[in-house]
């Protein structure tokens, strides 16, 4: 690893250009921002129970008035909950076993949000 330090910066630039076109590897535990924090945007109990209420499209305030960057933005969920692979590439938050898929798979919930919304941080 140490011998590679001279290529670190270009590697980061290249991988950020490739977001979305190169599939990410295995997610590494502890690499999501959320892994380092104690609480969600609402108390965890509330999020567990009601998270979908916060991000539904009929909160059309958000959609029609273009309010963004609120604490309930979907991009925010992705930004904080997405993990990275061993090379630092973000792993889609809805990939198998990843945060948004983990309980949904179990609960047989299917969401189609990510056909339009980005599954990794930093993409619009
Ligand atoms: C057909 C495309 C499409 C689908 C599918 C879709 N959205 Fe959206 N969504 C949009 C557009 C367009 C906007 C408004 C543009 C913007 O703010 O980026 C938006 C805005 C939002 C916002 C407010 C802005 C933000 O970044 O938070 C939330 C929250 C949101 N959508 C949640 C969801 C959720 C949850 C689902 C799945 C249940 C979903 N969307 C499915 C197109 C879509
Ligand atoms: C700034 C970081 C951050 C953002 C933004 C964020 N979360 Fe969280 N979220 C966390 C943390 C940290 C936890 C774990 C709290 C704990 O362990 O008690 C959590 C917990 C959760 C849980 C409960 C998980 C469980 O195991 O019970 C759900 C569901 C959740 N978040 C969904 C969302 C959704 C949906 C959004 C977007 C509206 C979102 N989060 C935005 C940090 C974040
Ligand atoms: C702690 C487990 C858990 C996590 C983590 C979780 N969900 Fe959920 N989600 C559920 C359950 C359970 C339901 C079904 C709730 C119901 O219908 O009563 C659900 C439902 C939803 C729905 C509504 C689906 C529908 O058809 O009505 C959306 C949208 C959603 N989740 C988005 C997300 C997003 C985005 C993330 C990641 C940021 C996420 N969830 C993470 C457990 C979870």
Approximately what portion of the residues adopt beta-strand conformation? under 5%
| Count of strand segments | 2
What ligands does this structure carry? heme C
Distance between the termini: 32 Å
Q: Which strands sit side by side, in order, in the main sheet? A: 1-2
| Average pLDDT for all residues | 79
Walk me through this protein's architecture.
This protein has 124 residues and is mainly alpha-helical. The chain has one domain (2-115). Helix content is 35%, strand content 3%. The protein has 5 helices and 2 strands, in the order H-E-H-H-H-E-H. It has helices at 8-17, 44-55, 60-64, 74-81, 99-107; strands at 27-28, 84-85. The chain has a two-stranded antiparallel ribbon with strand order 1-2. The longest helix is centred in the middle third of the chain and has 12 residues, at 44-55. It is globular and about 35 Å long. The model is unreliable at 1-21 (pLDDT under 50). One heme C binds at residues 33-34, 37, 39-41, 44, 47-48, 51, 54-55, 72, 76-77, 80-81.
Brief summary of the model shown:
The chain is mainly alpha-helical and 124 residues long. It is built from 5 helices and 2 strands; from the N terminus they run H-E-H-H-H-E-H.
């Amino acid at each position: 690893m140490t011998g590679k330090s001279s290529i670190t910066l270009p590697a980061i630039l290249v991988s950020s250009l490739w977001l979305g076109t190169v599939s990410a590897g295995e997610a590494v535990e502890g690499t999501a921002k959320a892994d380092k924090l104690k609480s969600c945007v609402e108390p965890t109990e509330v999020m567990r129970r009601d998270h979908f209420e916060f991000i539904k499209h009929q909160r059309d305030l958000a959609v029609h008035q273009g309010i963004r960057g609120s604490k309930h933005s979907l991009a925010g969920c992705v930004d904080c909950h997405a993990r990275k692979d061993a090379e630092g590439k973000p792993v889609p938050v809805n990939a198998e076993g990843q945060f948004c898929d983990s309980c949904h798979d179990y609960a047989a919930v299917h969401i189609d949000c990510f056909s339009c919304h980005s599954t990794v941080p930093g993409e619009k």
